[in-house]
Structure formats: C-alpha cells, structure tokens
Amino acid sequence: MTLLTLYGTSACHLCEAALAELAPLQAGGVQVREQDITEADELMQRYQLRIPVLRREDTGAELDYPFDLNRLLDWLQDVLAEEG
C-alpha cells in the first residue's frame, strides 16, 4: 500500500484542489493522510510558504503543488508498478 501525506491547512483552497487530483489514486488503493501544518511549529516553518505539499512516506520525496494526475502518476510510477 502506498501512503502519502498531504501537508496543508484547513482554509487552503489549493489544498482542496490537490485533494481532488488525488481522488482517482485513492480509489485505486493509495492512502492519503492530511496533515494540518498549523498543529506544529516545525511543520509551519518547513511548509508555510509551500503548501500544499505531498510527501511519499516510503521515500520521503516531496511534490509541491501544482500537480495534475499525470504528474502524480509519473511521480509514483515505481511504487504503483511494484503494487500492480
């Protein structure tokens, strides 16, 4: 199973757009955990000017928004190939 973390805030319209792009992947078994960066100073310092940011929990690789489904699939290609 592929686990991704989406860093953002509850009032972020770009974060909502990023979640919409992730919906087809979630239907295919990719698990997305949302993390509100306002809950930790360390997360605020790291991500406040970058959100939304998607992080692969297997490798730690990060993908900054904007991204679309094709870019997501390219970014996840090796993981999805192993699981497929």
Quick overview of this protein structure:
With 84 residues, this protein is α+β, with helices and mostly antiparallel strands. The chain has helices spanning 13-27, 41-47, 69-83, and strands at residues 3-8, 31-36, 53-56, 62-64. The mean pLDDT is 92.
Describe the structure in your own words.
Helix content is 44%, strand content 23%. The chain is an alpha+beta fold and 84 residues long. It has a single domain (3-78), classed as Glutaredoxin (3-Layer(aba) Sandwich), CATH 3.40.30. The chain starts with a strand and ends with a helix.
The name of the CATH topology is: Glutaredoxin
Strand content: 15-25%
Helix content: 40-55%
Q: State the CATH architecture.
A: 3-Layer(aba) Sandwich
User: Please, what is the average pLDDT?
Assistant: 92
Distance between the termini: 10 Å
Radius of gyration: 12 Å
Shape: globular
The overall number of domains is: 1
The count of DSSP E runs of length 2 or more, i.e. the number of strands, is 4
User: Which regions contain 5 or more consecutive residues with pLDDT less than 50?
Assistant: none
Organism: Halopseudomonas sabulinigri
Protein name: Glutaredoxin-like domain
Detail the topology: elements first, then pairings.
Layout: E1 3-8, H1 13-27, E2 31-36, H2 41-47, E3 53-56, E4 62-64, H3 69-83
Parallel strand pairs: 1-2
Antiparallel strand pairs: 1-3, 3-4
